[in-house]
Each structure stands twice: as structure tokens, then as C-alpha cells.
Design brief:
184 residues; 7 helices
Length: 184
């Protein structure tokens, strides 16, 4: 039954398109000739330019004339400029990279794939998870000050991390009801 209504709706849509196309194309040629035959609108008057004025030489004289007052002010200006020192390039032609202090990362679980060095003031993902877990299990031993000293971090950042980030804790609950459906 639903297929019949879908087919009828599709055909009705096609008929509607045909009807609208007939009305759009009705008397199209006469309407086009009428639009072409209309008088063109007048354009706005042009703003007078230097070329259209009667004395263009007056502007050239004014441009080339020397203003003594401005010339004396310009003579008083003293500009002292020095070239910046040359930047030293490496042997391969690239600019030297910005050197930043780095520290060795704490041992992770990925071995050689883990990050080896970390910039001071930053921590890797594995270190972040480790310090969150350590603080969660023994908050008296792993305080914010201890963590800040251990990982070379700022105390305010460590307190914010400990306050707003909670490590994942996965808990699997055993089934309480024996009447539960067995897996398929």
C-alpha cells in the first residue's frame, strides 16, 4: 500500500513540474522582446577629474613646487640606522633552532616508542597519567609540591591539574542476578 502512495506522489511531483514549466515559458519570446525594446536608464553624471578640467598644467606645477618650510623641517631630521647582526646558519643552510632546556622523561610503558626528552615545565601523557594515579592512590606522599619538584612544573599548574583531572578507574561489577540471559 505504501508503494502505491510513493508512486502516486512521484508522478504528482512530475506533473507539478510540468505545469510550472508551462507557465514559466508562456509568452517568453514576447516578454523578451519587450525587455530588449525598453529605453536604457541614463547613467549617473561623472565626477569631474583633473584631465577633464580646463588647466591640467596647474596641478603639475603645484606637485613639482618645492615647499621651503617642509624642506627645512626635513633637513633637521637625522636618521641613524644600523644593520642587524648577521644570523648564523647551520652547515645544512637552515637557521639554528631555538634551544630550550629539556629533561629526560620518566620511563613509560612503550619503551623505544615513548617520548625520551620533555621540555622543562611540560610533561608527557604517560607522566601525567602516572602522577594522577600516584596522587590518587597516596595523596599524602604525592602532594602538589612533591609532584612540582619531581617533574619541574609550576605549583599552581599542578594544583589545578590535581583538582580538575581525575584518573580513569575501571570497575567491573559481577552479575547479581543468576537469571540474566547468557551471551550468544
Amino acid at each position: 500500500m505504501a508503494g502505491i502512495f510513493q508512486e502516486w506522489g512521484r508522478r504528482a511531483g512530475m506533473m507539478g513540474a510540468r505545469v510550472t514549466r508551462v507557465f514559466q515559458n508562456f509568452n517568453l519570446e514576447n516578454r523578451a522582446h519587450r525587455e530588449i525594446g525598453k529605453a536604457k536608464a541614463r547613467s549617473a553624471p561623472r565626477h569631474p577629474t583633473a584631465a577633464a578640467q580646463d588647466n591640467p598644467g596647474k596641478f603639475r606645477e603645484e606637485i613639482q613646487k618645492k615647499d621651503e618650510h617642509l624642506h627645512t623641517l626635513l633637513k633637521e631630521v637625522y636618521v641613524d640606522s644600523r644593520d642587524p647582526p648577521m644570523t648564523v646558519k647551520n652547515r645544512d643552510g637552515s637557521l639554528p633552532a631555538k634551544t630550550e632546556e629539556r629533561r629526560l622523561a620518566k620511563a613509560g610503558q612503550l619503551g623505544n616508542l615513548d617520548v625520551q626528552t620533555v621540555p622543562k615545565g611540560k610533561i608527557s601523557v604517560t607522566e601525567a597519567l602516572t602522577l594522577l594515579r600516584n596522587h590518587h592512590h597516596s595523596p599524602n606522599e604525592w602532594t602538589a609540591e612533591t609532584i612540582a619538584n619531581e617533574y619541574n612544573l609550576e605549583l599552581k599548574d599542578v594544583t589545578a591539574v590535581l583538582m580538575y583531572f581525575i584518573p580513569f578507574s575501571v570497575e567491573i561489577f559481577p552479575p547479581q542476578d543468576k537469571k540474566a540471559l547468557p551471551p550468544r
